[in-house]
Amino acid sequence: MIKLRQLLFCLPLVAGLCARAAETNSLVWLTASDLAADSVSAELRGKALWPLLEDIAHQTGWHIFVEPGAAHVASTKFSSLPAGEALHKLLGDLNFALVPKTNGPTQLYVFTTTMKNATQAVAAGKRVVKRQKHVANELIVKLKPGADIDALAKSLGAKVTGRDEKAGIYRLEFADAAATDAALAKLQGNSEVAAVDYNYIFDAPPAPQMIANAPASATPALTLETPTKNDPCSPVVGLIDTQVQSLGSQLDPILLKAISVVGDLPANTASAPTHGTAMANAMAQAIAQASNGNSPVRILSVVVYDQSETTTSWNVALGIQAAVNGGATVLNMSLGGTTDSAILNDIIKQALAKGIVIFAAAGNQPVSDPTYPGAYPGVNDVTALSHPGQLAAYANFSPQVDMALPGTTVFSYGGQTFAVQGTSPATAYASGVAAGTKGLNCPTWAQIQAAMLQKFPVPAK
Question: Domain count of the chain?
Fold first, then answer.
């Protein structure tokens, strides 16, 4: 039997969202229960009052009320300020009152005359789900056995720029978008083609944010047991993400030699941690607590983001294949997009058929629309909590979501404390819990997943 107490653990919780606004405007709002004060960072150029307040409401879950006619355009830049100081800089000459509520969301009143005149409610609202972009001149094709990709490409006037013969998938490049669209229509009716898709683009994941004047986060107390090769009780977590940097001398032994599907990567010794480094730290915290600090679990970093920190469904598909071929028994995908890809779904089905356990992020928009690959059948779709039993204000709540875990990881890197927030760390925690529990007393994966569904339910929206 599973010791369900091993699945109950306490992790740093932060209410708010480490989010990005438009490319030229960013607002990051972190509120940590274990830190002295809120940490707000912003770089805004000409952002109007109403969308600014909508962004704050979206990230914090506050109820915000504005005096009709109040106006302001925010142009400011600052880092790691407490909420009060941040609001002064964001709201300029406008008056405001921040009113915490014991049994409900905090309320923010913004006004020019008196607080009682702030009567117009600002709702975070349902975010518009943006259509996922794709590479304009590329398609991904899965062929049926015996089909000739080179002959097919020649007939379409395309060039084969990527091959995975084992999976039977290929990347085709065309002269322009019009030729790509025309080829897609032809291939959808071709008897030799099992599936065809655009090559969809996944945006860069949220970057960890430094928390100024915060005490260093403790390194998880984790004694690494020597794993037995091919032992089903010694799980390997395939972290399909950005490059993972050093986790420090105590935790580096948990990392296997990384695999990159985007070419050779230089050693990353930057002063700021990557998203992959943050996810590895979150996993290590969860592994340590789920396994009582003794574990044979290892993490296999599979790099699918290039130097521009974007990736595509082609790279993610290759990353899944590489992780499975590299011995991963658990896959962590702290990423997602809004488009259902038949190619990606097929690759995931192949992994699931081999008994691989998969966790994926539900997405950082408070909508009921599915995020892929998390929404695919058989994948554990993970959303985020801001506090125990409370869905984070930013978190996806689609019917496909399976479980909810803490939405923030706080960790040390280069002598500084960093935090990253969203369904990404929630997913990494889930993967760590599953792997740590497997390494502790080796229940079946079905038992582990059933226990996690029970212990980490999705709160009602």
Answer: 3
